[in-house]
Write a structure and sequence with these properties.
mainly alpha
Amino acid sequence: MTLQRSLYTLAGALLLIGFIVLGLFVDDRPPPVDVALADAFHGQYARPAGQVAGLVTNVLGPVLPFALGAVLAVLAWRRRDLTVLCVKLAVVLVLCRMTSLIAKPVFYRERPREFPDLSYPSGHVVAVACTGFVAVLLCAWTRPHLTRLAITIAVVATVVGAFCRVVLGVHWLTDTAGSVLAVGGVGLISATGLGLLPLPRDPA
């Protein structure tokens, strides 16, 4: 394993450790920042701001990984030379998306207000973050000149999605932070293991 691969794996492991530690830390009692934001946005879900946030998260949510998965499937079908790459990216996408499904029953955290399902980490933010992560990898391997733009869009979309979930009162701020840590950790480890990281100097 090269030094770069080792560093990516180490970074992923540290992010996963951070995710677990944060989950354990906030499991019993939300920290002051969570409480302050929950109080600040209390009841907003029934007001115009909450309605807008709800519309945004209808797009920036669980639908995104499915949409990217469809793009990868079409790309693999039309470009046989990219089939292996698309399969690897799809594996990373699935593994990252599964973090919220697996972790929620483990931490069993309640939401800021009464709402179905558990709270840590946010499934919506996981969906946005994992879509962004894989989209960046896709650009880096196929359209490197678009990588920086993809990174910018991914970061902005994740932040906006996280903010909307807090405004709606269905997640604590630390739920959204945990989502990013989980996706970053699983994403870096799986992408490195599949040979997607480090990135090629001369992308296909």
